[in-house]
Amino acid sequence: MKKVFLALMAVAAIAFTGCNKDPKLSQEEKDMALVTAAKDALDTDGKALVDFLTKNGYTSMGDNVFKNGNEYCSIANTQNGLVSEIDIYTMIRPSNFEASKSYFLRMETAAATVFPSGFEGECSLGENLYQFDTELEFRNYAAQVTEGQFTETWNRCHARSDFNGTPVREITFENSLDAGIWICDLHIWKPEV
Fold this sequence. Notes:
By secondary structure, the protein is α+β, with helices and mostly antiparallel strands. The chain is 36% helix and 31% strand. The protein contains five helices and nine strands, in the order H-H-H-E-E-E-E-H-E-E-H-E-E-E. The chain has a nine-stranded antiparallel β-sheet with strand order 1-2-3-4-9-8-7-5-6, covered by helices on one side. Strand 8 and strand 9 (181-189) form a beta hairpin. Helix 2 packs antiparallel against helix 3, helix 2 (27-41) packs across helix 4 (97-114) and helix 4 packs antiparallel against helix 5. The longest helix is centred in the middle third of the chain and has 18 residues, at 97-114. The protein is globular, with a radius of gyration of 21 Å. 25% of the residues are buried.
């Protein structure tokens, strides 16, 4: 009887786990889905992006700004009501360099995958300007930067990709001296042709 019970429990456990058709996404998959949804929203009414945001824990703050913890998404529309620009950013309070840098690296990885061509990157730190032709070099360098390398006048890492009439992504990680916080901002738009 005990063996039958254990066999039934094993079958039930297998059936239960086999029925789970909604596996948890990794953070990388979530980030890529967010950037893809933002890119796909350009020149649309934006409803699909809003649905994506609300299904993924974002709440409306009004004026087309959505928040999920320290992460924000702001949607700008044209006069015709179509999405023209999207900002995905974080504002962590109290300011936290390591958490902001981690968010920057996550968004840079996702953006580089969704916007794979025409990469340009640079870091202006201390009194030095470093330029990069590949996303991998840029990301590897940015992963090593320290808070002490940022000064009042040279204080940001910046990258962009995809040009020539296609949607463009531009990402910036900097110390906002006015606000007193570290900011990571991923800006997505489609240039006018």
